[in-house]
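User: Can you recover a sequence for this backbone? Please restate the input before giving your answer.

Assistant: Of course. Working from this structure:
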């Protein structure tokens, strides 16, 4: 019997076959599971064990505790403020002093009402709170203890559960499956050398230990094994994809002495930073190979990524190729075109008959006029245009290149795999080199998991002369600070500078928040909108001679572009906007960024927004307004932003705050490739270990033949959703 057949027999068995139709239907409704393999990966989120027990008399306030106690009284009452009921349980602790009691509270506790009858002995686990002069546990986890469980006090698993599929039911169903687990129907696919090196149990034993550990340490080791398994399969999938990319043919584009790239370097008015030089060398060496470069370039807003990309573009043009720079918006494409032609100077002039010292540079967007579009297409097709900058318009069938050698994708996360493939497919007989850029710092563990098949280059330091940005929290509930905020905006305009004011919403409606007045004397529960801010500033006398304009996504493209052009030219003093200005807006005279209700934005988003100021050599200031009290947890996020300008440090903090969620983007609850055990935050060392092990494996010339079960597991693990996600990067 082959490994694939055995897995099919057990893991892919319908739950209805193994647990009965009624239980299978309940599991599918609760969690979306349909097979044994999906359900046995429903791992406990924690365990309670007798060793954790605390006598009721010694319960510490505001700490997590576990007690074993007998139910001595139950009661139920309706909630006044909303529908539902509160089920209260009073328990007596037989391990503590005689007569010691503790109350438990369950909101809409349907299952607790069924399980916790008077006389029932159970293990309760939760955080100790205080209510009406007594200690209590709110919504505690619990496990009813029968005589067998009291005689064999193993750790009790606590699962993600639902009202109709409670923990006890899950434990009973899982126990039935555990009894049937063997090495034959849950065969091992990780190489024995890896298991021995890391002291991991075989797969079937790891499942048993994870769901029903004899000791807590057994569950921990099993969890490590499954986390490593996920990291290893992911890294192996990425490595295999990278190997396949390496087998593709691309034309080598070596740097030519005395060419455009050398001339560009000679006319640069500044010295490249050490990071820019190092990253430029890495990219240049990639371009000299005859298989396609596949590199991620990440760096802060204003760190000089465009200069690095332009040097690579010129190297490709020197070697007879063309380059395409794909931007997500027309605003950003136009700004790239303007900044690149300015940096190139005379090098952007190919001469009347292509005999000049430069190369043609063209812009192609969806709103381009017919004549401009025709000229751009002719230049690309003839080869006269060495660089084309554009938006999705570059993906059209009528766009044909003479010899596309390099694709540069800005803000790569804004493009789907089909769009990127459509552009790369224009490389005729060879695959063009690819450079993807992002201004959003990527935490190291995310880079290893999501972008593991990309070579990564990082520009960490900003160029000399880039003005610093100071960031301050403004407590709006204090009248003095609130008034000072508006005065600060008018003062900046009086100095001849410009200001961004960012709001979390476009408009307010009576249906959403009742009647709203254009004043901040209302309530802290109201969030500021673009419309409300425009009305508010329009009513303040200090803004009588200030030009204020609104910008948001509901405006049509032509209006948005017109407003941005007016702001860039200095005709607008204060731009009140939503986050549409987060990427692609570069106005050197803008020195102040005010973010209203800043707690409504994430850490990375706040960092991206403030990067819009201080770009012209003038110091920048970012003010984070909030109505929240200083001790509110969300204000801690603002303090993190206030304390550092290091985007990579903030990216780690953002990841920790959001948790990692499903890092692969796979949403199906039953997907085999969902990362259930691997924590991108906590398991950095384990991910690095898996990556090192994969490198050793990939160094074996015939690992596919030596480890057929591993090959089958890798193909089985990467389902269509994950495969598409990996292909996007």
């Amino acid at each position: 019997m082959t490994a694939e057949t055995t897995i099919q027999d057990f893991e892919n068995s319908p739950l209805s076959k193994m647990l009965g139709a009624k239980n299978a239907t309940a599991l599918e409704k609760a969690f979306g599971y349909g097979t044994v393999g999906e359900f046995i990966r429903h791992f406990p989120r924690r365990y309670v064990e007798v060793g954790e027990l605390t006598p009721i008399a010694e319960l510490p306030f505001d700490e997590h505790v576990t007690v074993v106690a007998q139910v001595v009284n139950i009661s139920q009452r309706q909630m006044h403020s909303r529908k539902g009921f509160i089920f209260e349980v009073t328990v007596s602790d037989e391990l503590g002093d005689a007569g010691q009691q503790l109350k438990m509270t369950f909101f809409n506790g349907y299952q607790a009402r069924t399980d916790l009858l008077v006389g029932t002995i159970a293990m309760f686990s939760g955080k100790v709170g205080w209510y009406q002069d007594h200690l209590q546990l709110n919504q505690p986890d619990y496990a009813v203890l029968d005589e067998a469980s009291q005689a064999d006090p193993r750790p009790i698993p606590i699962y993600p559960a639902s009202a109709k599929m409670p923990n006890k039911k899950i434990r009973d169903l899982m126990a039935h499956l555990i009894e049937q687990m063997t090495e034959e129907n849950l065969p091992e696919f990780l190489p024995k050398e890896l298991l021995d090196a890391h002291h991991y149990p075989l797969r079937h034993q790891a499942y048993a230990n994870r769901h029903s550990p004899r000791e807590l340490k057994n569950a921990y080791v099993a969890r490590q094994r499954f986390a490593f398994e996920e990291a290893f399969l992911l890294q192996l999938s990425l490595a295999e994809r990278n190997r396949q990319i390496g087998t593709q043919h691309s034309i080598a584009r070596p740097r030519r002495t005395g060419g455009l790239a050398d001339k560009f370097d000679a006319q640069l008015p500044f010295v490249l930073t050490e990071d820019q030089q190092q990253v430029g060398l890495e990219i240049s060496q990639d371009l000299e190979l005859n298989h396609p470069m596949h590199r991620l370039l990440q760096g802060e807003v204003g760190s000089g990524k465009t200069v690095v990309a332009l040097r690579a573009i010129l190297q490709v043009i020197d070697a007879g190729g063309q380059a395409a720079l794909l931007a997500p918006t027309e605003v950003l494409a136009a700004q790239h075109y303007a900044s690149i032609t300015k940096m190139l100077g005379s090098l952007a002039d190919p001469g009347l008959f292509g005999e000049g010292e430069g190369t043609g540079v063209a812009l192609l967007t969806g709103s381009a006029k017919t004549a401009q579009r025709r000229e751009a297409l002719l230049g690309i097709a003839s080869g006269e245009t060495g660089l084309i900058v554009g938006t999705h318009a570059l993906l059209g069938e009528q766009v044909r290149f003479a010899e596309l050698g390099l694709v540069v994708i800005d803000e790569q996360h804004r493009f789907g795999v089909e769009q990127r493939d459509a552009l790369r497919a224009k490389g005729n007989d060879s695959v063009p080199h690819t450079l993807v850029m992002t201004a959003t710092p990527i935490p190291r563990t995310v880079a290893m998991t999501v972008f593991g098949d990309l070579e990564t280059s990082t520009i960490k330091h900003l160029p000399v002369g880039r003005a610093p940005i100071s960031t301050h929290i403004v407590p709006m509930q204090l009248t003095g600070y609130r008034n000072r905020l508006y005065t600060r905006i008018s003062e900046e305009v009086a100095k001849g500078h410009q200001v961004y004011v960012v709001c979390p919403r476009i408009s307010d409606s009576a249906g959403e928040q009742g009647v709203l007045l254009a004043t901040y004397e209302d309530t802290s529960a109201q969030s500021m909108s673009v419309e409300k801010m425009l009305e508010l500033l329009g009513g303040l006398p200090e803004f009588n001679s200030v030009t204020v304009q609104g910008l948001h996504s509901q405006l049509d493209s032509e209006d948005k572009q017109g407003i941005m052009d007016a702001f860039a030219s200095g005709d607008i003093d204060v731009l009140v906007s939503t986050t549409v200005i987060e990427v692609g807006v570069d106005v050197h005279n803008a020195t102040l960024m005010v973010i209203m209700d800043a707690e409504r934005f994430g850490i990375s988003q706040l960092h991206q927004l403030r990067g819009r100021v201080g770009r012209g050599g003038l110091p920048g200031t970012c003010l984070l307004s909030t109505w929240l009290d200083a001790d509110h947890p969300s204000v801690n996020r603002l303090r993190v932003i206030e304390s550092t300008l290091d985007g990579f440090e903030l990216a780690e903090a953002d990841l920790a705050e959001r948790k990692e969620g499903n890092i692969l983007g796979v949403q199906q609850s039953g997907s085999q490739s969902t990362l259930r055990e691997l924590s991108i935050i906590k398991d950095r060392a384990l991910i690095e270990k898996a990556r090192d092990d994969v490198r050793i494996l990939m160094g074996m010339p015939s690992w596919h033949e030596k480890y057929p079960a591993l090959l089958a597991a890798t193909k089985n693990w990467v389902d269509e959703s994950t495969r598409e996600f990996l292909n996007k990067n």
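That completes the design. Residues 1-6, 510-525, 661-673 have pLDDT under 50 and may be disordered.
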